[in-house]
Amino acid sequence: MSFDKIKTIYRNRLVQHILFWLVSYYVLLNLFTPSGKIEKIDIIYTALFLATIIPGIYINLSILIPRYLSPKRYFLYGILLVAVIATSAGFNLLFFDKWVSYLLPGYYFISYYEFFDIIKFVVVFIGITSLLKLSKGWFELSEAKHRLSQLQKEKAETELKALKGQINPHFLFNSLNSIYSLALSHSEKTPEIVLKLSDIMRYIIYEANVDRVILSKEIQYLKDYIELQKLRTDNRATITFEITGDPENVRIAPLLFFPLIENSFKHGIKGATSQSFVHIDLQMMEDHVTLIVENNKGITDDVEKKEYKGIGLANVKKRLEMIYPGAHQLKITDGEETFKVELTINHVK
C-alpha cells in the first residue's frame, strides 16, 4: 500500500473515529480488568460503558462546539456542557443498575463506578475529543490560510509579470519607430542604434526576469537606453545622468525606473523646439534610493498626457504598491514648462 493511499485513508473522518474508539476501548478494557485476566463479561461491560457515554460526546462535538463555543456564548456553552456531562454519567449509571439485565439476562452486571467517578471518565473523553476537534479545525484553518496566501502570491506574481510585460512592447514599438525613421533617411547611425537596442532587449528579456537585480546592472541598462536616445535625437537636447553612491551593494526590483526615464524623453524632447533637456539624478543612500527625473515640456505634452499616465506612471505606481508597499514615495511636480518626478524607495539593502 502506497504512502499516499495510507494518508488518504487516515484523513477519512469515519476511519479516524473508528480508530479513536478502538484505542479507547482497548485502554478501558485493560483499566476495568486490573488483574490482567480479561473475561467475556469484561469485554461486554467495556463495550456497553463506552456505548452509554458516546452520545454525549458527539452531542458536544456536533452541536455544542459548532453552535455555542464562541466568545459571546461561552457561559451558555459551559451550562450546556455540564448538563451533557451529568446526563451522560446518569444515563450510564441508570443503564447498568436498571436496564442492562433486561438486555442481557444471562449476565449479572453492576456498575463498577459511582456517579462522580463516571463523570470523571466523561470529562476526560470530552476533553480529549474537544481538543482533537479544535486542533484539527485550527490546522484546517491554517492550511486554508496558507492556500489563500499562495493563491494571492501567485496572483500578485502574475500581475507583476503582466505589468512588467507592458514595458517591453511599449518600448520596442517606440524604438522601432525611431529606427524606421532613421532607415528611411539612410542615417549612418542606424546600425549602432540597432546594436544598442539589442543590448537593451537582452537585459529586459533575460536579466530582468527576476525579483531583484543589482542596481549597477539596472544603471548600465539605463545608460544604454540614454545613449540610444542621444543617437536618436542627434544630440539636440541636453541630457545628463548623475549617479551618487555605490550601486553594487543595492538590490532593487528591475525596470522600475525605466518608464519614468522613457517618458521624460518621449514627452520632453519630442516636439520641443529649443532648450530641450532631460536631467536624471540617481542617489544611493544607506537605506534608500532616490531617482529624480526632470524634463522640459514638448509641444505634444498636453496631447499625450493621457498616454503618459496610462502606460508610464500607472505602471510604476501599481508595481510600487505591490513590491514596496508602504516603503516608497512618489512625488510628481507638473509645472508650466517642466515636468519632474521624484521616486524614493526605502529598505533596499
Quick structural overview:
The chain is α+β, with helices and mostly antiparallel strands and 349 residues long.
Please describe what this structure looks like.
By secondary structure, this protein is an alpha+beta fold. It folds into two domains: 3-147, no CATH class; 188-346, Histidine kinase-like ATPase, C-terminal domain (Heat Shock Protein 90, 2-Layer Sandwich), CATH 3.30.565.10. The chain contains nine helices and seven strands; from the N terminus they run ααααααβαββαββαββ. The chain has a five-stranded mixed beta sheet, with helices on one face. A two-stranded antiparallel sheet has the order 1-3. A hairpin with a 3-residue loop joins strand 4 (277-284) and strand 5 (288-296). The model is unreliable at 301-306 (pLDDT under 50).
List the helices and strands and how they pair.
Layout: H1 3-11, H2 13-32, H3 40-68, H4 74-103, H5 115-184, H6 190-207, E1 213-214, H7 215-233, E2 238-244, E3 251-252, H8 258-269, E4 277-284, E5 288-296, H9 301-323, E6 328-334, E7 338-346
Helix pairs in contact: 2-3, 3-4, 3-5, 4-5, 5-6, 5-9, 6-7, 7-8, 8-9
